[in-house]
Write a structure and sequence with these properties.
The chain is mainly alpha-helical. It has one domain. 72% of the residues lie in helices and 0% in strands. Helix 2 packs parallel to helix 4 (82-100) and helix 5 packs across helix 6. The two termini are 26 Å apart.
Length: 197
């Protein structure tokens, strides 16, 4: 199989995985525990065509937003808060940008990048909430309150309500899946075939 065909199949699989993971985890109310951040990281590091690497998280986010809006009770297009979407999409574009600058895809680098971009997503999207809504006063203490409120964010006492579990561990988990699967496929596909006697 040609290298370009393999890369196109990998891109299609990434889009499919990210959309499915987001639909399933949102349906289970595991907000932000999905493969979109990991796909942006993986795409930025592994896809040779960097335009496609930037398009990957935007396309997966938009298709999954559209699906959730049209076929579930999850409201992804926020009505009055539509300005926040620019920060969500921007955070994933920034993740892809950072990933294109990473030269080495070893386990430690992927772990640090997935944790770092999970934190980055939290900082960017909560800053977007602060700027585009009137939920918090537009002062430094209002910004701090916005970030503090964004840490637990969902139901108190719920294991899956924390920013750390959803945002960071979701990124770490799906990055491990994507980079691990890529390494395994690469190892299997490049093994020399045994000759029959």
């Amino acid at each position: 199989m040609k290298k370009d065909t393999r890369e196109n199949l990998m891109i299609a699989a990434l889009i499919f995985l990210a959309i499915i993971s987001r639909v399933i985890t949102n349906n289970l109310q595991l907000w932000n525990f999905n493969a979109i951040g990991a796909a942006a990281l993986f795409g930025g590091m592994m896809i040779r065509n960097k335009r496609v690497a930037y398009l990957l998280p935007i396309l997966t986010l938009f298709i999954s937003d559209l699906f959730l809006q049209l076929f579930t009770n999850v409201q992804t297009f926020y009505g009055a808060y539509i300005g926040q979407l620019f920060f969500v999409y921007g955070a994933f574009l920034l993740t892809a940008r950072i990933a294109t600058r990473i030269k080495k895809a070893d386990a430690l680098t992927v772990l640090i990048a997935s944790v770092g971009t999970g934190v980055l997503f939290f900082l960017v999207t909560n800053f977007g909430t602060f700027l585009t809504t009137n939920l918090y006063p537009h002062t430094f203490s209002g910004l701090v309150s916005c970030y503090a409120a964004g840490i637990p964010f969902y139901k108190e006492g719920d294991l899956f309500s924390s920013f750390a579990l959803n945002g960071i561990l979701g990124n770490v988990f799906f990055s491990a899946v994507l980079f691990g699967a890529h390494a395994l496929i690469k190892q299997i596909s490049f093994q020399p075939k045994k000759q029959l006697a």
